[in-house]
Specification:
Layout: E1 7-11, H1 15-21, E2 28-31, E3 34-38, H2 42-68, H3 72-91
Antiparallel strand pairs: 1-3, 2-3
């Protein structure tokens, strides 16, 4: 029975986490709160599991981040970060030099 493909099912605490993990290729719904996957290899099964857990971690943090963004202190810190770090970084010239000959047809 060595040719059998690994099957994995991830059971979540809430259906929205299963919803979030349905964007994974070849995922199939196994119920209200579960998602399954038949993997070609055990490595693919592990990757599926890790990806599903990472997606749900992000989904769990979204409501908290939305609430934090309404706080004046967080808004001020975001503006400060934009002005002090991001904008100057974006305004710097690129360290990569384009090769004009690479764009010409032979």
């Amino acid at each position: 029975m060595r040719d059998a493909k690994p099957k994995i099912e991830v059971q979540f605490r809430a259906s929205e986490f299963a919803d979030a993990s349905m964007i994974l290729p070849m995922a199939r719904r196994q119920g209200d709160r579960a998602v399954g996957f038949t993997a070609p290899t055990i490595s693919d099964a592990l990757r599926f599991f890790v990806s599903a857990v990472q997606l749900t971690t992000q989904a769990r943090q979204r409501p908290l981040w939305s609430k934090l963004q309404t706080l004046p202190e967080v808004q001020q810190m975001s503006r400060q970060w934009l002005e002090e770090f991001l904008r100057p970084w974006l305004e710097q010239p690129s360290p990569f030099v384009a090769n004009p000959k690479a764009l010409q047809e032979p």
